[in-house]
Amino acid sequence: MHEPASPGWLLVALCAATGAYCLLRMRSPVEEQRRTAGAEALMGFGMAAMAVPAAVVAPPRWAWLVYVTVFGAAALRGLGTARSSPHQLHHLMGAVAMVYMAAVMTVAPAHHAHSHGSAGVPLLTGALLLYFTAYVVRSGVRLLPLAASGGGLGAGGPGGPSVAEGWGTRRTVGWGDRPELSQACRLSMGIAMLAMLVTL
Question: Which of 3, 75, 78, 123 has its CA 20 to 30 A from that of 96?
Fold first, then answer.
């Protein structure tokens, strides 16, 4: 995008680290967790690649078209599942934001954006900024009680918290399934999305 090199690389590192954590979460035994983590890993790595400072690497126009295609497909896939959970709706909004930013960069590359002011559609950019601001605030507020209570799962000894599985048995929850870590992952990507939209 258009941010200076140092903040841009920090954004790349944040998104890449978040994407890597989401890949590890895909090892979860819970199918829904794996599906959600896969979508978030795609978003994290896509945002990391998009955030590479243009002064260091100026992507060719076809690269932005690839972003539009990949995240357009993700958005279409998300349309069918958006009603099933708030997470799926958020994934749809994230994919739409990625398509929008990539489309803007396809039409107005980085070296033109500086000379012509805002490269995007102000109304759409503003709507996305409002959505992700609200999401970041909501996620931050929800993260506080999760961190304080250990995710509300109860203590599970040295192996971490545990959840009941029926018949009095309990399963230790792996660190990749911890709700507070998943929430922190989404919060990080929400903040990164805000940073990217602001530079548009």
Answer: 3
